[in-house]
Amino acid sequence: MLTRRYHTTRKDSCGSGGASTTGVGSIVAGIWFVADFGTMGVNYLFYDEAKGLGDIIDETNFGEAITIKMYEGLY
Question: How far apart are CA 41 and CA 50, in angstroms?
Answer without folding.
Answer: 7
